[in-house]
Write a structure and sequence with these properties.
Strands 1, 4, 5, 7, 10, 11, 12 and 14 form an eight-stranded antiparallel beta sheet that branches. This protein has a seven-stranded antiparallel beta sheet with strand order 16-15-21-22-23-20-17, with helices on one face. Helix content is about 5%, strand content about 45%. The protein has two helices and 29 strands. It has helices at about 170-180, 250-265, and strands at about 5-10, 20, 30, 35-40, 45-50, 50-55, 65-75, 85-90, 95-100, 110-115, 120-125, 125-135, 140-145, 155-165, 185, 190, 195-205, 215, 225, 235-245, 270-275, 280-285, 305-315, 320-325, 325-340, 345-360, 370-375, 380-385, 385-390. The longest helix has 16 residues, at about 250-265. The chain has three domains: about 5-180, Jelly Rolls, CATH 2.60.120.200; about 185-315, Elongation Factor Tu (Ef-tu), domain 3 (Beta Barrel); about 320-390. A hairpin with a 2-residue loop joins strand 11 and strand 12. It has about 400 residues and is mostly beta strands.
């Protein structure tokens, strides 16, 4: 399936005024009168009968093939809404085409619109609800319902994507399923699936690392103790992934196991990426113990090996950026030393100072994730041309 040219997950913290576009063109949306609340996947944007997510500049070329998908939900009221339509506007004051969707949108549903040549189709949860043949280029489209308050909709939106091609019904189905089952694991940009690895159990990914012992004073004539908790600091993060590997031949099992072992035997930390939703979780880790596979030798396949990855992240507090272009620039102010992992194996250490600018260029294409680690809470000034994925994690 084609990659989206617009990808706005609306997964921002409440109070944000920008919804970031993770697509290649960085069409970030300005949020007016909307809030970020728990949604279908992480957070979503909620509009209480007013507001908008506005993008300046053209995003969809209505003269060409395109697709647009979004998860949507309307807020239930005593008298509705009861009916929903997709409405397409064409040149002329009253030139509209309406397609009823036969849903009240009381729960999260996936809406998709495709245009291939002169044919426009509308889908709800992968099921085609209508189609028509256009005779001109549309000027826009909207989803409306018969909500009784007769104002802008009380609605929530999540995971908006646009494509420069017309998605097939199979593409739309795949997109829905991938969104519903998004967890994927990578180590050094190598997918666990490609190694035949299945993760059975995860520990330590979302847990708070152990706090380092704070300064403590124990006065002999006072109850309890005095503890300095003004600036808590934390030790390394411990992560365990209980896994098993499946292959069709014994030679394949040995080859893939050696590949896993070689990754962790090489110098430097290794980038573990967990795609669990719209924003990846990133950890720069090393394997602190012996890799100890448990398997039974067989005379016939399939062949299995079980093992546990015991990973340690030495710098657990970080800010994560996404870079879609060939370079990135960061300007920051911090009195504490910071480390920057650029996502291509390169790292800049001991970054600190007042208004310090650091940059990096990439040789290859594709998205890169930059990890800034250290005392993130001590950064007092920060700007970048990249997208901030996690301000602090």
């Amino acid at each position: 399936m084609a990659n989206p040219v617009l990808d706005i997950p609306f997964d921002e913290p409440d109070g944000s005024t920008v919804a970031y576009d993770y697509g290649p063109r960085a069409h970030h949306a300005a949020i007016e009168a909307g809030r970020f609340v728990p949604g279908k996947f992480g957070n979503c944007v909620y509009f209480p009968a007013e507001g908008k997510a506005e993008i300046i500049g053209p995003v969809i070329d209505f003269a060409q093939d395109f697709s647009f998908t979004v998860w949507a939900k309307s807020e239930t009221r005593a008298q509705g809404p009861n009916r929903t339509w997709a409405v397409f506007k064409f040149p002329g004051k009253t030139n509209f085409v309406e397609i009823e969707l036969f849903t009240n949108l009381f729960y999260w549903q996936n809406l998709a619109i495709t245009q291939e040549g002169s044919t426009v189709k509308v889908y709800v949860d992968g099921e085609q609800k209508g189609t028509f043949t256009r005779t001109d280029n549309m000027t826009g489209f909207a989803i409306i319902n018969d909500a009784p308050h007769k104002t802008g909709g009380y609605c929530s939106l999540d995971g908006a994507k646009s494509y420069d091609v017309a998605l097939t019904p199979e593409d739309i189905d795949d997109n829905i399923q991938q969104t519903l089952q998004p967890v994927e694991f990578h180590i050094e940009n190598i997918a666990f699936d490609s190694l035949g690895i299945v993760v059975k159990r995860i520990d330590g990914v979302l847990e708070m690392p152990d706090m380092k012992d704070p300064l403590t004073v124990d006065w002999e004539d006072y109850h309890g103790e005095v503890v300095d908790l003004m600036k808590p600091v934390f030790g390394p993060r411990e992560i365990e992934l209980e896994c098993w590997m499946k292959t069709s031949t014994q030679d394949e099992l040995v080859s893939k196991w050696m590949q896993v072992r070689d990754i962790f035997m090489s110098a430097g930390t290794k980038r573990l990426r967990i795609d669990a939703g719209t924003k990846p979780l990133l950890f720069d880790v090393y394997h602190r113990e012996r890799l100890d596979p448990s398997n039974k030798w067989r005379n016939a396949g399939p062949y299995f090996v079980r093992f546990t990855l015991k990973l340690r992240e030495p710098e657990p507090v970080k800010r994560v950026l996404k870079v879609s272009g060939s370079s990135v620039s960061i300007t920051l102010t911090s009195r504490k030393l910071l480390s920057i992992s650029w996502g291509d194996g390169q790292k800049t250490m001991n970054v600190y100072g007042n208004g310090v600018t650091v940059g990096h260029s990439y040789a290859g294409g594709g998205d890169k994730y930059v990890v800034i680690s250290g005392n993130i809470e001590d950064i007092t000034g920060f700007s970048t041309d990249a997208v901030i994925v996690w301000s602090k994690i």
